[in-house]
């Protein structure tokens, strides 16, 4: 345990498993409801049903394998000879159905041992990174620390620490085992932690003032840069983001800078207006929350109302339900008030309805008095689904709600022009590292086939090369489509539509680390624009968490130095 919070990366205090608590509460509630209705058997949660289905499939495969072996005369020893494979199959099943990160990690460690992947981890040499420079820097840090040479330690910290030293940030280092990467990389990062512990010790007879050390660490942090979490749009698929946040929060690797577009703006804003304890409680009761964003299509009358609105105004829904839901969650907090309350930097992207305006990134610097709920509604105003929206602000003198000073501009869905505002975040907050969660149904299939989005799952060299070729083909195809759309806009053919389509196709939809749902999740189009049920909320949360767990070791290694520096700086400033 270090002096400024805990293990590397920094942990303020242990957090109970959100996903495990969520499943337990859901099962208890379902069981109580079944008892009230005097049912013989309790209702299973979606997770229980998933576990049962997978267990049945694995059992069926084992039976078939044993049957085939028996036909070829191997019945006397078939079971014994398949014991190891059965153990692997059983562990893989447990990995897919784990309900907490600790259990998932335990299973992954067992799999790495059973499948002999630990041997690859122990071997320092690899053409994926410069192991010699990593080892050299680690030994220099260790030597200076053991000698108590604080001046040299500070010199090494200031001059050698970067996020991607020796290419240790290469995501391909994380596709050769179920969890973790080369032991040399983990040892180097641990040595960095020990170096920070040494230079921040109180009453250390090194003759250096705390202010001098603080200045050195602040400059180092600027050099390393900052990490931002960026949540994409994607309709009700955006509930997947809840599980991502739960997983990051549990392991205390949730960046302070958070951006959201459309559905991502909903989840990002709810997170950013609550402190950690409140978020823990909110997420554990997430299935009880109401996300009634869309009008219910209960009968032919409501359908005809929506159809009439679409024919008259070009939108299927009005945004009253959306506004009411966001006000219930967010109240009348402004961007500045939310930042002062939680310290998190919330960013929401909005796209002007006009082609003559540029997309905007709203936060406590660019729109301090803007009401967050109105920014979220504007970011969710997908053309054809919701009408364009006006943004409101709180008058600083009177506290009265009024239209923002840009009221003449109407805003639509932030995903249209700037789903992941990477460039703007870099300019404003020195962000050079992006954790992206992408759930847009028109994007996920292509990213699943992208070699840039690997990491956290085992993948062969042939698979990586195949994805590279597919990526090149997609790049050529999209370039041609963009060219024709630009030509159409220039000659006046559906100029507004073509311009918006160019924005959609030419954006970057992935980050340095990209978290993606399964293709099956984004293929359920009937749930894209529908109010979620408690069961669907639970499924999305669990699947979001499970998609994030393989990325946790990558995030810790990419961001560990950054988060530890934040903790060390906070400690020195508190003295």
What does this entry look like structurally?
Residues 32-43 have a biased composition (Basic and acidic residues). A motif (GXSXG) lies at residues 260-264. This is PNPLA domain-containing protein. Helix content is 54%, strand content 7%. The protein contains 23 helices and nine strands. The protein is an alpha/beta fold. The chain has a domain at 226-456 and 510-551: 3-Layer(aba) Sandwich (Cytosolic phospholipase A2 catalytic domain).
Keywords:
PNPLA_dom, seven-stranded mixed beta sheet, 23 helices, lipid metabolism, 575 residues, Cytosolic phospholipase A2 catalytic domain, alpha/beta, 54% helix
Question: What is this entry, summarized?
Answer:
It is built from 23 helices and nine strands.
CATH fold descriptor of the domain at 226-456 and 510-551: Cytosolic phospholipase A2 catalytic domain
Terminal CA distance reads: 19 Å
Instruction: Estimate percent helicity.
Output: 40-55%
Q: Average the pLDDT over all residues and give the rounded result.
A: 80
Total number of helical segments? 23
Major sheet description? 7 strands, mixed
**Helix- and strand-based class?**
alpha/beta
Bin the strand percentage. Answer: 5-15%
Assembly category: single chain
Number of strands: 9
Report the top-level CATH class of the domain at 226-456 and 510-551.
Alpha Beta
Spatial extent as radius of gyration: 26 Å
Q: Based on CA inertia axes, which overall geometry fits?
A: globular
pLDDT under 50 segments (min length 5)?
1-14, 38-42, 71-80
Motif (GXGXXG): 233-238
Organism: Wickerhamomyces anomalus (strain ATCC 58044 / CBS 1984 / NCYC 433 / NRRL Y-366-8)
Domain PNPLA: 229-426
Biased composition (Basic and acidic residues): 32-43
């Amino acid at each position: 345990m270090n002096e400024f919070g805990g293990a590397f990366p920094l942990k303020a205090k242990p957090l109970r498993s959100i996903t495990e608590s969520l499943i337990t509460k859901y099962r208890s509630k379902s069981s109580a409801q079944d008892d009230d209705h005097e049912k013989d058997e309790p209702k299973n949660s979606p997770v229980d049903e998933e576990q049962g289905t997978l267990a049945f499939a694995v059992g069926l495969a084992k039976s078939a394998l044993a049957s085939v072996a028996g036909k070829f005369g191997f019945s006397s020893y078939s079971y014994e000879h398949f014991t190891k494979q059965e153990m692997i199959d059983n562990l893989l099943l447990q990995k897919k159905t784990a309900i907490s990160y600790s259990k998932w990690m335990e299973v992954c460690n067992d799999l790495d041992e059973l499948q002999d992947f630990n041997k690859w981890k122990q071997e320092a040499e690899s053409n994926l990174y410069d192991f010699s420079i990593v080892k050299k820097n680690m030994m220099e840090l260790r030597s200076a620390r053991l000698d108590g040479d604080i001046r040299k330690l500070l010199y090494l910290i200031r001059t050698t620490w970067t996020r991607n030293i020796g290419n240790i940030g290469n995501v391909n280092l994380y596709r050769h085992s179920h969890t973790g990467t080369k032991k040399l990389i983990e040892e180097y990062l641990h040595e960095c932690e020990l170096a920070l512990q040494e230079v921040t010790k109180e009453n250390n007879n090194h003759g250096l003032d705390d202010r001098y050390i603080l200045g050195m660490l602040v400059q180092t942090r600027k050099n390393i840069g900052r990490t931002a979490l960026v949540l994409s749009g994607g309709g009700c698929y955006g509930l997947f983001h809840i599980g991502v946040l739960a997983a990051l929060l549990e392991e205390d690797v949730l960046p302070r800078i958070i951006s959201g577009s459309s559905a991502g703006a909903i989840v990002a804003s709810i997170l950013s207006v609550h402190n950690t304890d409140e978020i823990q409680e909110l997420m554990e009761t997430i299935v009880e929350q109401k996300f009634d964003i869309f009008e219910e299509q209960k009968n032919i009358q409501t359908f005809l109302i929506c159809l009439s609105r679409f024919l008259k105004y070009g939108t299927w829904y009005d945004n009253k339900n959306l506004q009411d839901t966001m006000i219930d969650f967010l109240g009348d907090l402004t961007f500045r008030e939310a930042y002062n309350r939680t310290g998190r930097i919330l960013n929401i992207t909005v796209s002007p309805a006009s082609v003559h305006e540029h997309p905007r990134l709203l936060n406590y610097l660019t729109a301090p008095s803007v009401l967050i709920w109105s920014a979220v509604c504007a970011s969710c105003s997908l053309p054809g689904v919701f009408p364009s929206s006006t943004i409101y602000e709180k008058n600083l003198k009177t506290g009265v709600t009024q239209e923002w000073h840009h009221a003449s501009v109407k805003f639509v869905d932030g995903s249209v022009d700037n789903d992941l505002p990477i460039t703007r975040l870099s300019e404003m907050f020195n962000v050079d590292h992006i954790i992206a969660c992408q759930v847009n149904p028109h994007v996920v299939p292509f990213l699943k086939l992208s070699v840039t989005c690997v990491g956290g799952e085992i993948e062969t060299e042939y698979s990586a090369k195949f994805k590279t070729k597919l990526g090149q083909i997609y790049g050529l195809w999209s370039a041609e489509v963009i060219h024709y759309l630009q030509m159409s806009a220039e000659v006046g053919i559906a100029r507004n539509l073509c311009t918006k389509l160019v924005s959609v196709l030419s954006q970057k939809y992935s980050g340095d680390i990209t978290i993606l749902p399964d293709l099956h999740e984004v293929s359920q189009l009937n749930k894209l624009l529908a109010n979620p049920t408690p069961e669907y909320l639970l499924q999305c949360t669990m699947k979001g968490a499970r998609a994030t767990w393989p990325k946790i070791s990558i995030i810790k290694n990419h961001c560990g130095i950054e988060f530890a520096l934040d903790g060390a700086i906070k400690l020195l400033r508190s003295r």
